[in-house]
Amino acid sequence: MSILRRLLTALMPQDCLLCGAYSGDALLCPACDAELPILPANACPVCAEASPGSAVCGACLKERPRFDATVARFRYAFPVDRLVQTLKYQRRTTTADFLADAMLSGPRPSGDVIVPLPLSAARLRERGFNQAVEIARPLARALQLPLELDGCLRSRDTTPQAVLPWKQRRANVRMAFECSIDFGGRSVIVVDDVMTTGATLDEFAGVLKARGAMRVTNWVAARTLRD
């Protein structure tokens, strides 16, 4: 969080975003913060799905994704889902700082450049901002890595993944991204808010590797786990 923002929140104490209790200069009160579902330690290193002993899961062994690794801080469940929704649909951009701080407090991936997952032009006009960009800014500053905001785009507006059955999501995002950057053997960290099936991130990773990326790591605030 910036020094100016810390000063403003200290001068104007706030209520907890989730329960309304006094939270001082924090987005959440201590009780709600303690309920945030940290992703279990035993997770597949490739897709971050639950996996005994942190071994590569059966799904990734059967069909290896085009991305190489995934780092996630939370399980996408209550109350993290509420936080993500307030960011995306209520434009509460301070939530992006909160999620970025939480991601920085957990495992950090290594790489040469950070690329936020692009939004389509239509979705960007509708929402007014890209939540992945807002999360990625403080991450790039903390890791002292370049933040690539130009050259990668979502050229096709697709049906929102959340409304589709899991099996249809891969086809929905096929050929949805374009990239004009030569990554020339660099390791790319892709930032997004939530990873569900991984279909969108897999499609984007394929485009990045076609443009020379040596390695692609997803760094997401939350991961949806299969029951």
Describe this structure in words.
The chain contains nine helices and eight strands. With 227 residues, the protein is of the alpha/beta class. The chain folds into two domains: 35 residues, no CATH class; 183 residues, 3-Layer(aba) Sandwich (Rossmann fold), CATH 3.40.50. It has a four-stranded parallel beta sheet. α4 packs across α5. The radius of gyration is 17 Å and the shape is globular. The model has no long low-confidence stretch (mean pLDDT 88).
**Biggest sheet architecture:** 4 strands, parallel
What's the CATH first level of the largest domain?
Answer: Alpha Beta
Structural class estimated from helices and strands: alpha/beta
- pLDDT below 50 for ≥5 consecutive residues: which ranges? none
Strand share of the residues? 15-25%
Count of alpha and pi helical runs: 9
